[in-house]
């Protein structure tokens, strides 16, 4: 066997033994690359006599062709083996149940959902949304809302106060969303139509009270606003929120320093084996406080009570959420228990709309 055929056999053996495309490429470079063994033989042709070149040249080129073919054939085999291996690892079992997409997997907290529902309903009636800080002045939380200094109604609010400042005044965690009424009236000229959703705080804790809770306030100020408008708005709201066609409401006289007259509103319901149904039944359930804005409040907020009048209401978001979605212990809303959230939570992409349904 000549040197050339030994070399060819060796290379063909290496080609056959290459286990993957990288190994095969290394064999190719070692044989046919610039410094490859066959390339080296070809380079020597130039130094040969014409006769030698003829015979040797033909032999080397034939060997080179066979090596090239063997490389191509082996590459095909390795390629399809690699594809087979990939297909084997990437098989899809179409009979498996569909997994939730990551964007669908989380849950919207029922309180966030109810905020969205309330905002959607009032936005549809033409209300805009006003917000204020959780840390308030005593002035906005109480004084301008017609709670005189030392008035017993202040005590009823179980307020979290901050330490007194040097001038003796104390900041506090707002006990209700009503200070946002004050801020809105000070900042805007009537007509005013806002709702003020947000966090509120009182020193209180049991199954239906938590130190931090949520309210939504409503405020309408205009020249001719009256209790009839208020009742209509609240009635429409309750129907939309509880997703029923009819609901009876009852308004009872009450007292709030910032409204005169003041009322509390109840909705009709039926309690049945631990469940509540709205829009039917003989029971009544209190859901909010409301009234005509007291002239003292209008005056304290820069609005002339001889020109303008208005009405307001305040409602516990946690309370209406519990009623609507059948939750019994308010404290669970704040525990962040994933099991509770996956039971009571809402799908992130099911955004509440009036046309598409609030809660479906
Ligand atoms: N601020 C009251 C509370 O927290 C709720 C309330 C009642 C708000 C009557 C109002 C209203 O705007 O008119 O108890």
- Please write the CATH class name of the largest domain: Alpha Beta
**Poorly predicted spans:** none
- Count of distinct strands: 10
* Order of H and E elements: HHHHHHEEHHEHEEHEEEEHEHH
- Major beta-sheet overview: 8 strands, mixed
Assembly of the depicted chains: single chain
Task: Provide a descriptive summary of the structure in words.
With 360 residues, the chain is α+β, with helices and mostly antiparallel strands. The chain folds into 2 domains: 2-89; 105-344, Bira Bifunctional Protein, Domain 2 (BirA Bifunctional Protein, domain 2), CATH 3.30.930.10. The protein has 13 helices and 10 strands. It has helices at 3-17, 21-32, 37-44, 50-89, 102-105, 110-124, 138-141, 152-155, 179-187, 227-242, 295-300, 317-325, 338-344; strands spanning 128-129, 135-137, 171-173, 192-201, 212-222, 249-256, 259-272, 275-278, 283-293, 309-316. Strands 1, 4, 5, 6, 7, 8, 9 and 10 form an 8-stranded mixed beta sheet that branches. The radius of gyration is 40 Å and the shape is elongated. The termini are far apart. The chain binds 3,4-dihydroxyphenylalanine. 3,4-dihydroxyphenylalanine binds at residues 176, 178, 217, 256, 259, 289-291, 312-314.
Q: What order do the helices and strands come in, and which of them pair?
A:
Elements: H1 3-17, H2 21-32, H3 37-44, H4 50-89, H5 102-105, H6 110-124, E1 128-129, E2 135-137, H7 138-141, H8 152-155, E3 171-173, H9 179-187, E4 192-201, E5 212-222, H10 227-242, E6 249-256, E7 259-272, E8 275-278, E9 283-293, H11 295-300, E10 309-316, H12 317-325, H13 338-344
Parallel strand pairs: 1-4
Antiparallel strand pairs: 2-3, 4-5, 5-10, 6-7, 7-8, 7-9, 9-10
3,4-dihydroxyphenylalanine (DAH) binds next to strand 9 and strand 10.
